[in-house]
Design a protein that fits this description.
Largest sheet: none
Structural class: mainly alpha
Strand content: under 5%
Oligomer: single chain
Number of helices: 5
Number of strands: 0
Order of helices and strands: HHHHH
Number of domains: 1
Helix content: over 70%
Length: 116
């Protein structure tokens, strides 16, 4: 179901945001004299792990976006067979289908831009 994908998407964002916040907090707490005692390879490995987490976050967001797009496409096709249009393209058309950032900027675009 599309709403479950959206819920998992939100949970994934919360997880990675919490993880990255904890890493930044730890880095701030360790700054100063403590950092001087950590070997260069240790700092590089911490940075590499953080970078890998950001790449995983980016890929997951993109995957959720693709999955939701496919699900809503199927919903749209099924909707064409109904007498009423509970989820119509009128809403997206009203916002210019996300093509103009001044009218509407889809959240998925903001998330992906923030991770580049």
């Amino acid at each position: 179901m599309a709403n479950r994908v959206s819920a998992r998407h939100s949970l994934t964002n919360t997880f990675f945001l919490t993880l990255n916040s904890a890493e930044l907090t730890a880095a701030g707490a360790l700054s100063g004299p403590t950092v001087r005692t950590v070997p260069t390879w240790g700092l590089a490995s911490i940075g590499f792990v953080a970078l890998c987490q950001c790449v995983a976050w980016f890929l997951l967001i993109r995957s959720y976006r693709q999955l939701n797009a496919a699900k809503y496409k199927v919903i749209g096709e099924l909707e064409k067979r109904l007498p009423a249009l509970p989820y119509s393209d009128a809403e997206r058309a009203e916002f210019g289908e996300g093509k103009s950032s001044t009218t509407y900027l889809p959240l998925a675009h903001v998330e992906l831009w923030g991770h580049r």
